[in-house]
Description:
Blueprint: H1 12-31, H2 35-117, H3 122-128, H4 133-274, E1 299-301, E2 304-307, E3 314-317, E4 320-323, E5 329-331, E6 336-344, E7 348-358, E8 361-370, E9 372-373, E10 380-381, E11 386-389, E12 400-407, E13 410-412
Antiparallel strand pairs: 1-4, 2-3, 4-12, 5-11, 6-7, 6-10, 7-8, 8-12, 9-11, 12-13
Helix pairs in contact: 2-4, 3-4
Amino acid sequence: MVSPAQADPPDPAAKKKQLDSQIDQSKADLAAASDQLGTSVAAYNVADAKYKAVQARYAAAQGRLAAAKAADAVAASKLRVAERSLRAAVADVAAGERLIAEKKAVAGRAVRSAYQQQNSLVGLAIALRGASPADVATGMQVQRNVFGIQGNAITNLNNAQAQLVSKRAKVAKAEKAAEAARAEAARTVQQVTELTKQVAAERAEAAVVAQAKLVAFKAAEKEKITEQAQYNALLRERSRVEQILIARARAEKAAAARRKAAREKAEREKARKEGRPPRPVPDDREDNGRLSYPIKSYITSPFGMRFHPVLHYWKLHDGTDFGGGCGTPIRAAASGVITDRYYNGGYGNRVFISHGVIDGHSVTTVYNHLSRYKARVGERVSRGEIIGYVGTTGYSTGCHLHFMVYQDGRVVNPMKWL
């Protein structure tokens, strides 16, 4: 184990090369899907993201509306309490005013009675009228009672007036509380109204976005089905071609074996006549046993398994893609015979060249998506001879050459032979 302090720092150049490779691979993966499919899926993803955003806003607006309604209920409750308190305070003041009026009346009568009874000769008057001592005592008690009533009435009146002041202060306070409650209730009602409108707008927008999302989803699904159908068609075409080329490879290898056997027989006969041992007879071989690049260009997508970015399954990219503008000449990778030339919905315009047996293997090269042909079926072509031109026919995302190599009838990595 190497401690972090001792470990070598990452090489920026190597890291960049790794990232560039990942980016190129991502581009190659995306190239496996048609432009329309990519556009449809991208449109659906945008619609889905927008729909989720609108749904979030709608949910938030609903939450705010619920909170506003709750606040409105609280404010309405406060308003009811404040108004009840105000009514009670007003009624209390009215009762106090009536009580004061009553106290004033009592006090008035007491004053008048006191005035009428406030006479130092009251006892004498009673006595002069022939009243008994008991009557005189009773008269004096009445006088004291009258003056007592007068004092109580005045005291009660003062108390009632003080209570009335307090009750009026409570009324003023209750009026302020009721006014504040009314203002708060008005605000919450306005907020509820505004949020109700906002929720309705968000709901309407959500409905529109949901419809757009549904349309985008259907379009993407349609393109996915088309993509799947195209891929299935490619598989059927590849299988069909493989069956033909496997049978052709057997025939070519058998013919090559017969030719070699004939050459060996001729060599043995010649060696016998010349009195020497027979020399080894080589297999059929095309030049150096390698293929030439069909166009001088860069590779945009190598041979190998790909994870489809939309359909989410692994598929074989059965050739090597070379970048090139439409109309770029395509040359034969080696000498051979044009065996097939036709259009296929997936591969577009195709040209097959049989190169015979090379290093013991039957080799056929295939050139796909051509814009037009140059060579004819049955024509023998030489290495480097123009056989057609780069195009974007068939299921293609742009001008390029999809170059394939069949070895003994089976598709293999072209770079093995280039």
